[in-house]
Specification:
Elements lengths: L1 E2 L8 E4 L2 E11 L7 E8 L5 E7 L3 E4 L2 E11 L4 E4 L6 E4 L15 E7 L4 E6 L3 E9 L12 E6 L4 E5 L7 E5 L4 E6 L2
Antiparallel strand pairs: 1-6, 2-3, 2-6, 3-4, 4-5, 7-8, 7-10, 8-9, 10-11, 12-13, 12-15, 13-14, 15-16
Length: 188
Amino acid sequence: MATTSDIKNGLCINLNDKLYQIIEFQHVKPGKGPAFVRTKMRQIETGKVLDHTFSAGHKIDIVRIENREYQYLYNDGDSYVFMNNDTYEQVNIPPSLIEKPEFLTEGMVCNILFHAEEESPLVLELPMHIITEVTYTEPGVKGDTATNTLKPATISTGAEIKVPLFIDTGEKIKVDTRTGVYVERVKD
């Protein structure tokens, strides 16, 4: 079993029967009292960030996780089907493991975090940005480019996002999948 001296960024641990990934850590040796390790951890299932302090030498339970690339194939109603491009193995992912399933497009390559000992999927990470087409938005008015006003637009995946007034139907745009925010217009 490992101790707090083994903590590093990206390490996955089991704490109170929940899986956490270390985002940041700091070893602290105060002038008075015992040393401790201050950590910032993200719960893998929910994405919730937690601050936790361990006393120095505290035993921790390290969990081995693997990040694998899978290609999105289709939605079969109650789950999403992904395929490993190396082994052609298919895996069904429930919508609860995908943070923003409305940005999935067929053929998209995503990272799936697996619990290595149990071979079970823990979370699916979409690519940081997608390039998609605006399928519907209200037409912009000439001269409306000076303000930071946004209007609703529907993209090819069916998701609705906010775009600047100068974006028209049929244009390709780049969208941040973590926040669902318009990034920029894409030229062909």
